[in-house]
Specification:
The protein has about 150 residues and is α+β, with helices and mostly antiparallel strands. The chain is built from three helices and six strands; from the N terminus they run ββααββαββ. Strands 1-2-3-4-6-5 form a six-stranded antiparallel sheet, with helices on one face. A hairpin with a 2-residue loop joins strand 5 and strand 6. The longest helix is centred in the middle third of the chain and has 21 residues.
Length: about 150
């Protein structure tokens, strides 16, 4: 399930009212990280009652961002994932220790990779990047319907 360095679920990191979830997971950048994070985010989304296509889109896009963080961040570096759910609106932020400003690419159909951020751009309600001390954050939002 991956080497989880730090799971912050204390009251200060996780705040719930009737409709809000705000939580963070910190783990090592390794091959199993995308699966670990997808399961963690999907549990939060399901508990918040977000359903339909929205939860499938959140799962797909979360996996893409974490996969990119594993590939483009330093080996063995940290990945910080934050999920915020307010009713049916979901925001996922993935921070890694890599540099640069990611941009959505539009590779040739035969290219073996390079479509992740294009999927994020196409399927999210909004997305973006920002430099942070020691790395970068890539985020997306999905505005959906609650069950």
């Amino acid at each position: 399930m991956g080497d989880v360095r730090d799971l912050r679920s204390a009251a200060s990191a996780r705040q719930r009212d009737a409709h809000v979830v705000d939580d963070e997971l910190v783990l090592v950048a390794e091959r199993s990280a995308p699966r670990t994070v997808r399961h963690w985010v999907m549990r939060a989304v399901a508990e918040a009652g977000v359903g339909g296509v929205s939860n499938q889109v959140v799962e797909l896009l979360t996996g893409e961002l974490v996969s990119n963080a594993v590939v483009h961040g330093p080996d063995g570096g940290s990945i910080h994932v934050r999920v915020r759910i307010d009713r049916a609106d979901v925001r996922v932020e993935v921070t890694d220790e890599g540099g640069g400003a990611p941009k959505a690419g539009h590779p040739e159909p035969t290219a073996p990779s390079g479509r992740g951020l294009a999927l994020v751009e196409a399927l999210s309600s909004d997305w973006g990047t920002r430099a942070v001390p020691g790395g970068k954050t890539v985020w997306f939002e999905v505005h959906g319907e609650a069950d």
